[in-house]
Amino acid sequence: MLPTGQPVSVTVFRVDAFTDRPFAGNPAAVCLLDTARPDDDLERIARELNLPATAFVLARGSGHDLRWFAPATELELCGHGTLAAAHALWEAGALAADAVARFATKAGALTARRRDGWIELDFPVEPAVPAGAPGPLLEALGVTPRHVGRNRFDYLVEADSEATVRRVAPDFAALASIETRGVIVTAASASPEFDFVSRFFAPRAGIPEDAVTGSAHCALAPYWGARLARRELVGYQASARGGVVRARLAGPRVLLSGRALTVMRGTLSPDERSSGRQAR
User: Fold this and answer.
1) Number of structural domains, the chain?
2) Are residues 259 and 117 in contact, defined by beta-carbon separation less than 8 angstroms?
3) Residue range 56-95, pLDDT digits in tens
4) Residue 119: inside a domain, yes or no?
5) What is the phi/psi pair of residue 147, to 5°?
């Protein structure tokens, strides 16, 4: 637990990821730690901040340890949390503007670098193989699928059109009964600006709908890359906030690019007079 009776504080950034305008994209909190903290503290902080992802960053050697927590669970792979973490390190001056952010995570070594105003993430490909749909899935989505696949994280369901993807209004209780991190619903884009659109639902992780899901594009990129015979693609996640993800396939890796901006910066600290925590 965070020590009581001692001044302990954590610098916190709130970052909107996969967007270049405030209050769009996917919000993440980034906590820059000065020392390792127990898991129960990280879990409580993530619940308190109550964002789709809270990234905890701790300098170690020439890089940083990185962990991500949703309000209800720790995440094994998180794109927007990684994008936000790299952005916060550059903003805080913890990394030089032209330095590569190197992260040790539960998903292995990940990197982020700045390229032409975008942040490029080097992530593993997570292809979804054809799979049968579990009983509640299609009824919960209200979709007649063109394809159903699954990787180690999520189900991927291709719908017949972008309009269908945008209309999906899931039964979240039914989705939460399925043994999976989340469900990706996708279709070819109706606009020449994008190659495909998607939405992502993860009620089991405490996130009914995620705004822009970088890690889902580890499945979307190889899926649409094969369908369209393309190595470079642009996806739009059609949530209420919306966001753009560029993807470039590179063998067993996929380079995901997005923009980010800081919307708030502050300090999270325990109140020495009680066991509570407060932001100031």
Assistant:
1) 2
2) yes
3) 999 999 999 999 999 999 999 999 999 999 999 999 999 9
4) no
5) -160, 145
